[in-house]
Write a structure and sequence with these properties.
Blueprint lengths: L1 H12 L18 H7 L9 E8 L5 E2 L7 E3 L1 H14 L3 E7 L18 H13 L4 E6 L12 E3 L2 E3 H18 L3 E4 L6 H11 L6 E8 L6 H7 L1 H5 L15 H13 L3 E5 L5 H11 L3 E4 L2 H12 L5 H14 L4 E3 L3 H8 L1
Parallel strand pairs: 1-3, 1-4, 1-12, 4-5, 5-8, 8-9, 9-10, 10-11, 11-12
Antiparallel strand pairs: 2-3, 6-7
Helix pairs in contact: 3-4, 5-6, 6-9, 9-10, 11-12
Length: 344
């Protein structure tokens, strides 16, 4: 049918009319070099932040739910940080795997200057100085026996009491030498309390990256398994403090409040399933905006690739490119070293 139409058109006009069509967007897609020239979004290693799990053991240990990711010893973290430096990845984000003996209802070990994450921070600073940024999670879930991000009393997460502990935790992390504290707990008012505490302790140069729009997502499962908090949490959820995935306007309110309280940067989490939120935040506020490609998003790509259903390398690169296209200034991703090597 299409062939007859073409033949008829050629018969009527001899050739296609010059104006059919005058604009051909496909012209700009003909060659790889041409597509590169007109690309509107470019991904580089400088756009990536590498999340690292650190545990208090000598050997690295694979994480079954996150193929290709390991719990690292402190020495393993130092090797990863040096790799990040060589690849041009500007920062790492540390997440401690806390031994059960150090967990308690009040998360007191989070305030110990000799805890695992503080020792890791000091080791990185001694080894690398300021050449690679150190971002540290401010939340209590690695340290609580119940797996929640805050203090739990009679089935309720206490907001203000938790905020007081988080502010102290942030000061401990800053004193150890981290460059950025990243409250991920979603308690109300915690950014202002952390900023006051840091400034009072003369850590006014430590930045705050607020997990401002963090949803109560089902995509966090592998991360919780990696930290060992999944067992502690059990069948409980975090819906009374993390955001409802149904809400968009609420994310704008959260970001607005955190910026007013002193946040230097804001975070959207999860990334791939929150691209609309990421775009709205960047367009509305124009501030440094990060996105976290979370464990479940990472593991889905890895699982599909392992089954031969997708090209894992191409899919991971595409997933990060669209996160940046939506407005992310930097992306926390477990693909960071693999993608950076490919881009280099």
């Amino acid at each position: 049918m299409a062939e007859r139409i073409i033949q008829n058109d050629q018969a009527d006009h001899g050739i296609f009319p010059a104006a059919f069509p005058s604009t051909r967007l496909r012209r700009m897609r003909q060659h790889a070099w041409l597509r590169s020239i007109v690309a509107e979004t470019v991904l580089s290693p400088a756009d990536l932040i590498w999340p690292l799990f650190v545990h208090d053991h000598q050997a690295n240990a694979p994480i079954a739910a996150m193929p290709g990711v390991e719990r690292l010893s402190i020495e393993g973290v130092l090797r990863a940080v040096e790799e990040a430096r060589q690849l041009g990845i500007p920062a790492v984000a540390l997440f401690p795997v806390v031994e059960a003996t150090h967990k308690s209802d009040d998360a007191r070990h989070a305030l110990d200057p000799q805890n695992l994450v503080c020792r890791t921070i000091r080791a990185i600073r001694e080894s690398c100085g300021n050449s690679v940024g150190i971002i540290c999670d401010v939340a209590l879930d690695p340290y609580t026996s119940h797996g929640h991000d805050g203090l739990l009393v009679n089935g309720q997460i206490l907001n203000d009491e938790t905020v007081a502990v988080l502010a102290r935790q942030a000061v401990v992390l800053a004193a150890a030498g981290c460059h950025v504290v990243a409250p991920s707990d979603m308690m109300d008012g915690r950014v202002a309390a952390i900023r006051r505490a840091l400034d009072t302790a003369l850590h006014q140069n430590v930045c705050i990256l607020s997990y401002a729009a963090k949803y109560a997502s089902s995509f966090y499962g592998p991360f919780r398994m990696a930290l060992g908090s999944a067992t502690s949490l059990g069948t409980a959820d975090k819906k009374t403090y993390q955001m409802d995935s149904a809400n968009s306007d609420e994310a704008i309110r959260e970001v607005s409040l955190d910026l007013a309280e002193g946040a230097d940067m804001v975070m959207v989490k999860p990334a791939i399933v929150s691209l609309d939120i990421l775009y709205r935040i960047k367009q509305t506020f124009g501030v440094p905006t990060m996105a976290y490609q979370v464990s479940g998003e990472y593991s889905m790509i890895q699982a599909a690739a392992a089954n031969g259903w997708i090209d894992g390398q191409k899919a991971s690169l595409e997933s990060l490119l669209v996160i940046k296209r939506a407005g992310a200034d930097a992306i926390l991703t477990y693909f960071a070293p693999e993608i950076a090597r490919g881009l280099k």
